[in-house]
Design goal:
With 81 residues, the chain is mainly α. It is 72% helix and 0% strand. Helix 2 (31-49) crosses helix 3.
Length: 81
């Protein structure tokens, strides 16, 4: 019977443990920051190319929406594989 009040030690080579370790390695490379920077630079370049001036709140809101769309598209592509 599992203890409902405490964590069970995971086997060293369990899939969940492996997934956690791989996620830690990926996060250590700061890949999230890299993706954000690429999208942000592309967004700012596009604004400059079209001579569009937005207030800071508008810029933040639109960047957030664009980043969300990009990430959703990435997830859809991953699901199609």
């Amino acid at each position: 019977m599992k203890n409902p009040f405490g964590p069970e030690p995971e086997p060293l080579f369990s899939y969940v443990n492996l997934q956690k370790r791989m996620l830690q390695h990926v996060q250590a490379t700061k890949v999230n920051d890299q993706i954000f920077q690429v999208v942000q630079k592309s967004f700012e370049d596009a604004l400059r190319a079209e001579n569009i001036v937005l207030s800071l709140p508008e810029r933040k809101r639109m960047l957030s929406q664009i980043l969300r769309s990009v990430l959703e598209d990435m997830i859809k592509k991953l699901d199609k594989r």
